[in-house]
Specification:
The protein is mainly alpha-helical. It has eight helices and three strands.
Length: 244
C-alpha cells in the first residue's frame, strides 16, 4: 500500500482501524476492549474538552488514565506542527488541547520504547528524510499530470476523474490510460495531442517506478533497524508487513 503510493489516496479514517489493530495491538502488544475488561488502547477517547482518535493508557475503570493521546493523520501529512485546514490548529494541539495528563515514571516504564544508539538515531533520521524527499518528488510528478487530465474532457461535460485516472500511473500503459479517458469523458485524446500525452505519461510512469524503488529500499533499511530495536520475531515481522 505504501510502496505503490495508494496509501496517499486514502482518507485518514480509512486507516485508523488497521493502524490500531495491526500496529498498536498486533505488533506493540497493547490491547483493546475485546482483550478484557481492563484494556490499554482506546479509540475515539474523550479527554475533557474533546476527544482523540486513539489513546494509550489504562481503561475499563471508572476514570480512564491516558498516557499518550494520538491525533492520526493521513499519509500525505508532512508537518504535524502546521495548522490544519478547517481546524485552525496543529495535530499536536488537537491531541493535547483536551487537557493535560501527568505521565509518572511508574506508568511510562511500561510503554515499549526501546533504547537507541546515536548511530541508530542518525541512520533513521537520514533514511526518513530521504524517504520524505523522494516521496515528495514522486507525488509532484503524479499530481502534475493528474491536474492536466481534465483538459481532455470536452466542454459541457463533467471532468470528474475516476480512481483509475486519479492514480493514472497504476495503469499498465498508454493504451490503458487512453481507454480510461475515452470511457470517462466519452471522447478520445485528440490526435494532435496523442503523441505528446503518450510520451509524457510513459516517461513519468517510469520515473515514478524508479522513485518508488528508491523509497522501498530506504523503507526496508528503516524496517530492519526498527525490527531490531523492538526485537521482533519472524512471525511479528510477517504480521506487520502483511498490512503495509
Amino acid at each position: 500500500m505504501i510502496r505503490s503510493g495508494r496509501v496517499y489516496a486514502l482518507k485518514e479514517t480509512a486507516l485508523h482501524g488497521q493502524f490500531a489493530a495491526k500496529i498498536i495491538e498486533g505488533v506493540l502488544g497493547y490491547h483493546g476492549p475485546a482483550g478484557g475488561a481492563d484494556y490499554t488502547v482506546a479509540t475515539e477517547q474523550a479527554i475533557l474538552r474533546g476527544s482523540v482518535d486513539l489513546a494509550l493508557g489504562r481503561f475499563g475503570g471508572k476514570t480512564p488514565e491516558i498516557l499518550a493521546p494520538f491525533e492520526l493523520k493521513g499519509a500525505d501529512t508532512r508537518d504535524l506542527d502546521a495548522i490544519m485546514p478547517g481546524r485552525n490548529k496543529t495535530p499536536v494541539q488537537q491531541a493535547w488541547e483536551g487537557g493535560f495528563f501527568e505521565a509518572t515514571t511508574q506508568n511510562t516504564t511500561k510503554i515499549p520504547i526501546p533504547a537507541t544508539t546515536e548511530a541508530q538515531k542518525e541512520a533513521l533520521a537520514e533514511l526518513a528524510a530521504e524517504c520524505q524527499l523522494v516521496a515528495k518528488k514522486r507525488r509532484d510528478i503524479q499530481a502534475a499530470l493528474r491536474r492536466r487530465i481534465p483538459d481532455l474532457c470536452p466542454l459541457g461535460r463533467d471532468p470528474k476523474l475516476t480512481t483509475r485516472l486519479q492514480e493514472w500511473w497504476t495503469l499498465p500503459d498508454f493504451a490503458a490510460f487512453r481507454a480510461e479517458v475515452k470511457k470517462v469523458f466519452k471522447a478520445d485524446i485528440p490526435l494532435a495531442e496523442r503523441s505528446a500525452w503518450e510520451d509524457w505519461s510513459t516517461r513519468d510512469r517510469a520515473e515514478i517506478a524508479r522513485l518508488s524503488a528508491e523509497i522501498a529500499k530506504a523503507e526496508a533499511q528503516i524496517d530492519s533497524i526498527v525490527y531490531s530495536l523492538f526485537d521482533l520475531t519472524t512471525d511479528e515481522i510477517a504480521l506487520l508487513e502483511s498490512v503495509v
